[in-house]
Amino acid sequence: MLYVDENGHIDAERISLKIFKNIERGKMDAINGIVVHQTNAATASSTFNSYQTKGANGAHFLIDKDGTIYQTASLLRVTWHVGKTQSRCYVSKKCEPVELKMVSDLEKSWKNSTRVHRIEKSKVFPHRYPNNIDSIGIEIVGESKIEGGDEEPVYEPVNEKQNESLKWLIKELTETLSVSINEIYRHPEIGRKNATEASTARW
């Protein structure tokens, strides 16, 4: 179990505090899930620089290439790390018939992703995926590159040290925050993201 102080900061030997107020939004009232990302930046310092700009998006943690874990936002504050979510009932094939037809029609065009996201935002958990207001974000340093004739960039593999740190961090967070292991996701599993993001992350 982790010790979390009144500011939502963790006091643990394996975690370095490097809080960026710019990425913190409103108060987080509940934590229902964890979302694993990759930064699309080659270094931690590049990500930290981006976190210092006004209105920056970011996550609660960042795992560097050497396995160092940084806490970058309070566990009591929302960060914008998920973006537009997919329909949980559509992905899991558990929609009621009326909603299934509506979402199926919307899914035919990428332009309707905002409309699907609005429908999901109106739902309460667990009828939707965890999103910005109720999930912890973990970034792993790793950029994407165009490979061969691929049109979409491919994220570099998460290395062994990063995966070891990720495994430890998720174990501690799920125990400390009472988050179900079934509510841990790679970003593309719930959002509209490059399918290779965090695809090699292991926990």
What does this structure look like?
The protein is an alpha/beta fold and 203 residues long. Helices cover 27% and strands 16% of the residues. The strands form three sheets. The protein has a six-stranded mixed β-sheet. A two-stranded antiparallel sheet has the order 1-2. A two-stranded antiparallel ribbon has the order 8-9. The longest helix has 18 residues, at 160-177. It is globular and about 50 Å long. The two termini are 17 Å apart. The mean pLDDT is 95.
List keywords for this structure.
globular, EC 3.5.1.28, two-stranded antiparallel ribbon, 6-stranded mixed beta sheet, 203 residues, alpha/beta, single chain, cell wall biogenesis/degradation, Lysozyme-like
Q: How many domains comprise the coordinates?
A: 2
How much of the sequence lies in strands comes to 15-25%
**CATH fold-level assignment of the largest domain:** Lysozyme-like
Terminus-to-terminus distance: 17 Å
Structural class: alpha/beta
Instruction: Tell how many strands the DSSP assignment holds.
Output: 10
Overall mean pLDDT stands at 95
What is the name of the CATH class of the largest domain? Answer: Alpha Beta
Shape: globular
Helix content: 25-40%
Radius of gyration, whole Å? 17 Å
Pfam families: Amidase_2 (PF01510)
Protein name: N-acetylmuramoyl-L-alanine amidase
Enzyme class: hydrolase
InterPro entries: Amidase/PGRP_sf, Amidase_domain, NAMLAA_amidase_2
